[in-house]
Amino acid sequence: MSFFKLGLPNTLIAALAEQGYKTAYPIQTAAIPAILQKKNILGIAKTGSGKTASFALPILTMLQGSPIAKSRNPLALVLVPTRELAEQVGDVFKLFSKALLDPIKTRVVYGGVSINPQMKGMYGVQVLVATPGRLLDLIESGAVNLHKVKTLVLDEADKMLNLGFKDEMNRILRLLPKNRQNLLFSATLSPDLDSLSAVLMKNPVVIKIETEETDLSQIQQSGYFVPEEKKGPLLRYLIKTQDLKQVLVFTSSGYKADNVADKLRKNGIKAAAIHGKKSQSARNNALNQFKAGNLPVLIATDLLSRGIDINNLPCVINYELPRSPKDYIHRIGRTGRAKNSGIALSFVSPENVHHFKVILKKSKLYVDMIDSSTLDL
User: Fold this and answer.
1) What letter would DSSP give residue 177?
2) Is the model's pLDDT at 215 over the cut of 80?
3) HEC string for 48-89
4) How far is CA 107 from the centre of its chain?
5) Least packed by Cβ within 10 Å: which of 94, 120, 204, 314?
6) CA nearest to 319, candidates 256, 277, 275
7) Which has the higher per-residue pLDDT, 299 or 197?
C-alpha cells in the first residue's frame, strides 16, 4: 500500500521516497493508521519486517506541533533490550524527524558508557529511546521524569523478557502515567508476553504478520575464519582475486562502515559508506552510484540497507555478523534474487564462532568454512 493512504504528513512521505521506500510493509500498513487513532497495539512481526518505522513515523506525526519541552519530561518512551537496537531505533527517529518543519528531539541512552553526557542531554527531549537499566539509573539521578509520557513502546519485548528485564520493566511501568498509549512489538507471542500485554493494554489492536520465507536456493554461502585485525586484508583480497564488481558489505555500526570504506579507498578500491550520520545527499549519491554499477563497494549498516533493492546484486559480505538469524537471512537475501545467482560471504572472528553457529542452527543452514590463514593476505 502507498504511504499516501496511511495518514502521514507529506513531509514524511517525501522523506520516505528519498530513502527508496515506495510502498509500506504489511506491519506499517496495519499499524500506522491504528497508532494515529491513539489505539493500543500488540504487533507480532519478525525482525526486518519494517516495524521500527511502523511506530516511529506515527509517533513523529502525533508529536508535530507539540511545544518544545523546557523540562526533562519526554512525551514518548521506547524501551529496547540492547544498545545496538537502541541506536538503530534512534537513527530511524532522527532520520525522519529531520523532514519535519519542527524536528522532534530524540535521545538514545544505554549502559556501558558514561552516564554524565546522557544526564546533561535530557533537557528538552521529546522521544527517549532507552534500555531499562540505564533508564532507571537516569530516573534515580533525577535526570528524567516519566510522568508526561503519552506513548510507550516496548520493542522486541520477547527479547527483553528472555534477557531478564522483567523486574526492571515493572519498576518503570509503575512510574508511567496510567492514561497513555501502549505499543508492544515482538517477534513471538510467548506466555510471558501474553500476560504482560494483558497488564499493559485495554482492547489492543492485534496485528500478526506472517513473514514469507526468503528463497536462498540461488545463493552460494561461504564463511571465513579470520582474526579481527585481518578482516580488512581479507576483504581487499577477495575483491581483487575474485574480481568482485558490485559488493554490499555489512557492518554493525556507522563508525565501522566509515573505517572499512576509508581503508578500501587507501588501497585503491573505490568504496563508500552509508549510515544514519551521513547527510541525505551523501547517502543518495552513494546509493545511486552503487545501483548504477559505478561504485564497486558499498558499506552499510542494517538500518540504512533497507532501501537497497537490486535484483541482480552479485555479492553480499558480512564484515561483521548480524545480531540475529533473521538479520542474517535479511542480509544475504539481498543477493540471489529474481532467479539470479549470488554469493554471500561471512567473516567470523574467533570470539564470534559460537554466535555464527547459533545463527546457522536456527536458520537451518550449512555454510562451508575456509581458514583465512591459508590465503596469501
Assistant:
1) -
2) no
3) CCCHHHHHHHHHHHHHCCCCCCCCCCCCEEEECCCHHHHHHH
4) 16
5) 120
6) 256
7) 299
* CATH classification at residue 242: 3.40.50.300
| Pick from 228-232, 277-281, 339-343, 363-367: least confident | 277-281
Stretch (H or E) spanning 208: strand 205-208
Cα–Cα dist 16/53, whole Å: 10
For the chain, report the end-to-end CA distance as a whole number of angstroms: 48
Strand-pair partners of 316: 248, 344
Q: Rounded mean pLDDT of 131-137?
A: 94
Q: Cell numbers 515482538 correspond to what residue? A: 186
**Of 184, 208, 232, which residue constitutes the final position of a domain?**
208
Q: What is the largest CA-CA distance in the chain?
A: 64
Looking at this protein, which amino acid is placed at residue 281?
S
Residues 342, 278: Cα–Cα separation, whole Å: 28
Asked whether residue 369 falls in the same domain as residue 235, the answer is yes
Q: How do residues 26-69 score in pLDDT, each as one tens digit?
A: 899 999 999 999 999 998 886 667 889 999 999 999 998 777 66
β-bridge mates for residue 222, sequence order: 345, 368
Question: Cα separation of 275 and 48, whole Å?
Answer: 17
CB distance 108 to 87 below 8 Å = yes
